[in-house]
Amino acid sequence: MLAIRLSRTGKRKKPSYRIVVTEKTRPRDGRFVEIVGTYDPLREPADVRLKADRVKYWLGVGAQPSETVRSFFKKQKLL
Question: How far apart are CA 10 and CA 24, in angstroms?
């Protein structure tokens, strides 16, 4: 099953995240299918950038978002 979730990038104590589509069984920072956005929690307010058309496509083919990513979608009114 496909999942839309966060994958951590950045330095120690300076996190940034990619929002990726990946198999649910893969490791957090492992191989992914596609990058559909980014999340920078250190900005004020936190910066979330999404490719809305690709997110809608992956949701349409059955990908399940994680709880955190689902909250991003609700804020951007994608769900």
Answer: 22
CATH number at residue 18: 3.30.1320.10
pLDDT digits (tens, 9 = 90+) for 19-53: 999 999 999 999 999 999 999 999 999 999 999 99
Q: Which domain holds residue 6?
A: 2-75
Give the amino acid at 37: G
Instruction: Place 10 in a pLDDT band, splitting at 50, 70 and 90.
Output: very high
Residue 60: partners with Cβ closer than 8 Å, 6 or more residues away: none
